[in-house]
Amino acid sequence: MVHNINPEIVSFVLFGMEFSVRWYGLLYVISFIIAYFLYKPFLKKKDIEIDRDKYESLLFYIMIGVILGGRLGYILFYNLRFYMTCPLSIFAVWEGGMSFHGGAIGVFLAGWLFTRRHKLPFYRMADAAVPIVAIGLGLGRLGNFINGELWGNVTTLPWGIVFPDGGALPRHPTQ
Q1: CB 170 within 8 A of CB 160
Q2: Which of 7, 19, 120, 175 has the fewest CB atoms within 10 Å, i.e. is most exposed?
Q3: 114 near 13, Cβ under 8 Å?
């Protein structure tokens, strides 16, 4: 089977500039929406009460943490030399470049700073977030598959997929 999924859902021209909506970005948005609706009930199960304004501020911190952390992690861990020579490319997020571990560090720091600032129980709140994080990670990996990234080991099994940038041999899709 050959991977030929288009990572763009739709593209259009607006004010003379071309824009596109990509599956990966849409899956991030869906993850944030799921977090908005599901995290609060998990907090209640941990006996953590938080008013709406604080809750929305917390989620905003987390979104910024995952996006900035993911981007900075990619820059620092994978391509620092390039970004040192072309620093404005740091802002070219439409060209891709996120890292899981950078995002994890960003979320950890954002959550820790928020809970410390508002005197909330960090570890209990982090524990309540685990199911939400799992959903977000799963959707992110689906985005990686659609983008044809993170191909697995070479396989002879029938579900092996030939990824455009993964060589000529089928790979086990292990996003």
Answers
A1: yes
A2: 19
A3: no
